[in-house]
Automatic annotation (TrEMBL):
Keywords assigned: Cell membrane, Membrane, Transmembrane, Transmembrane helix, Transport
Name listed for the protein in its UniProt record: MFS transporter
TM segment ranges: 28-49, 61-78, 84-108, 120-142, 148-169, 197-216, 236-256, 263-282, 288-311, 323-343, 363-381
Bilayer topology term: Multi-pass membrane protein
One GO cellular component, as annotated: plasma membrane
Localization, UniProt: Cell membrane
Superkingdom of origin: Bacteria
Domain Major facilitator superfamily (MFS) profile as annotated: residue spans: 197-394
Signal peptide start and end residues: none
Organism: Novosphingobium aerophilum
Length: 394
């Protein structure tokens, strides 16, 4: 399930913006397309995840969503005008983004130990790599839109495959409202933000999501323009982090059992700080910059994957899809949108008359944000349980 889920995303993500440039879309139009996931994250909280929590078995919700999403991806492949492409991509986003929360819900509902989630989620990273890497060899350096549209055809085919496969997943029924249960799952999930430890985690997740998404906004240009890595190799260098992510996902349960929630998350967010500090101070060392990509596994698994596991344990069962969607709102939506606006503006402000970017000063900003998030966690995050529950101590 996770392999197919992330393979859909990995098939089109690396080439989305270059493809829109080939179609002649303006920067403003490309920004509108880039905002679709933010829109979908907001809508998902109030409608899609609410529907999954209260009215629809999770595996059937997944099947219907990927059926519609697959058809929309085929439409995007053949759409050459902006209104048609935007419409297909927006509908695809609206049905795909909520499934990222629902797949988490299905996994947790059918795992005897939530700490095993890391090993399950590692399959998603493998799926992403398997879907994205072949395009490095299939597409030439000068491929036109008639060739690059294959990214959506492949993604659409994977989506339809997952729609069919979803019907074979374990039945994960909804939790309808009843006595003492709010009919609006999203309202109950939002209400839990009144608990200090949830509010603190929500704030830090926002900070880390801005830093995390900022990495993807700035990294490719930094590697090619400052470090001097060839453009056709930058995707390979960036993908080293995904390989490391598989390893860290596999050991996440072991780490959580020994370090606990807070320390694991602090290590994860400090991974961002370390990576950006390396970018700031070691840009002249190609081996160092390549090696530091391996920190991506720590950054993602030890913070974001840990957040998903924590949400499953800390939130009531009947609102877990909405709760996962609430944090996805930050990770995939608001954090992405803030990073997409903040870091290009900072880059422009730190670009000199000669066109050279002061990457040293630029990368100190996300490093500082990550450090601030780690300090907030250390001082204010006090979850009810220091470590995840296990079948033995639950």
């Amino acid at each position: 399930m996770m392999a197919l889920q992330l393979a859909i995303w990995g098939a089109w993500a690396p080439k989305l913006f270059p493809y829109m440039g080939m179609l002649g879309f303006t920067p403003g139009q490309q920004a509108l397309v880039g905002s679709c996931w933010g829109i979908a994250s907001v809508v998902g909280i109030f409608f899609s995840n609410q529907f999954a929590d209260r009215n629809f078995a999770a595996e059937r919700f997944l099947a219907v969503s990927h059926l519609v999403g697959g058809l929309c991806l085929f439409g995007a492949a053949w759409a050459t005008t902006f209104p048609a492409f935007f419409g297909c991509y927006l509908v695809y986003s609206l049905v795909y983004v909520p499934t990222l929360s629902v797949t988490n819900t299905i996994a947790f509902a059918n795992l005897s130990d939530g700490k095993d989630f890391g090993r399950v989620r590692a399959g998603g990273t493998v799926g992403w790599v398997m879907a994205s890497w072949p395009f490095v060899f299939i597409l030439g350096a000068h491929s036109g839109p008639e060739d690059v549209r294959a990214i959506f055809l492949v993604a659409g085919a994977i989506a339809l495959a997952l729609a069919a496969f979803s019907l074979t997943l374990p039945h994960t029924p909804p939790n309808p409202a009843g006595d003492g249960i709010d009919a609006l799952a999203w309202r109950r999930a939002l209400g839990l933000l009144r608990q200090p430890f949830v509010a603190v985690l929500f704030l830090v997740t926002f900070i880390d999501s801005v830093v995390h998404n900022g990495y993807f906004v700035m990294a490719d240009a930094f590697l090619t323009n400052r470090v001097g890595i060839a453009g056709n190799l930058s995707m390979v260098v960036l993908s080293l982090g995904q390989i490391a992510e598989v390893v860290t996902m596999l050991v996440l349960g072991w780490v959580l059992g020994r370090l606990g929630w807070r320390v694991t998350m602090i290590v994860g967010i400090l991974g961002h700080a370390a990576r950006f500090l390396a970018f700031a101070f070691l840009a002249d060392s190609v081996p160092a910059i390549v090696a530091v990509q391996l920190l991506h596994g720590i950054c993602y698994a030890f913070f974001f994957a840990t957040v998903y596991i924590f949400v499953d344990e800390a939130f009531p069962k009947d609102v877990r899809s909405s709760a996962q969607g609430l944090f996805n709102l930050l990770i995939l939506g608001i954090g992405n949108m803030v990073a997409s606006a903040l870091f290009p503006a900072l880059t422009a402000g730190l670009t000199g008359p000669d066109g050279q970017v002061d990457y040293h000063r630029l990368f100190l900003v996300p490093a500082g944000l990550a450090a601030a998030g780690a300090i907030i966690l250390a001082l204010a995050f006090r979850p009810p349980n220091a470590v995840p529950a296990t079948p033995e101590n639950a």
